Amino acid sequence: MYEDEFELTFDLSGLGDPPDPQPEQSAPEAPPQPEAQGIQPARADAGGGVRVLAWLRLCPVAALCEELVFRGAVQGLAAGLGGWSTAVQAVLFAAAHGIGPGGLYALGFGLGLGWLRRRTGSLWPGVLLHGLNNWALFCMQG
């Protein structure tokens, strides 16, 4: 059926000995530490640029955004409820900050900021107080 026959051969002499059926298992290497790879955690021991960016995000930017949302939009939309608008925004503010001690602190802080908003008619005193609060918490984290 086939007119030409050929032979296929392989030269395996340069491949060395065949592998053992069960190679020796060595202890796994410990993963390299981030510091060994030149990566620093975003904490007090990190570079100044990382610390400044974290501060900007947490202190003035977060304070401004949260005041615009909770004391501006939410409290403003609930203004028809009178003094209850302060409670409504404070409960939502606390819920956004989680359950537990942090949420309880946020509830009290939100009530105070809501009262300040109603008392002054302006968001700016709350933005300033909120930014100072965040700055103090940021400093306590180290």
Mean pLDDT across the residues is 80
Instruction: List low-confidence stretches.
Output: none
Strand content: under 5%
Largest sheet properties: none
Number of helices: 4
Secondary-structure element string: HHHH
Please state the CA-atom Rg, rounded to the nearest Å. Answer: 32 Å
Explain what the structure shows:
The protein has four helices and no strands. By secondary structure, the chain is mainly alpha-helical. The chain has a domain at 45-141. Helix 1 packs antiparallel against helix 4 (124-141). The mean pLDDT is 80.
Secondary structure layout plus pairing:
Elements: H1 48-77, H2 84-96, H3 101-120, H4 124-141
Helix pairs in contact: 1-2, 1-3, 1-4, 2-3, 3-4
Q: Summed up, what is this model?
A:
With 142 residues, this protein is mostly helical. It has helices at residues 48-77, 84-96, 101-120, 124-141.
Any key phrases for this structure?
142 residues; 4 helices; endopeptidase activity; mainly alpha; CAAX prenyl protease 2/Lysostaphin resistance protein A-like domain-containing protein
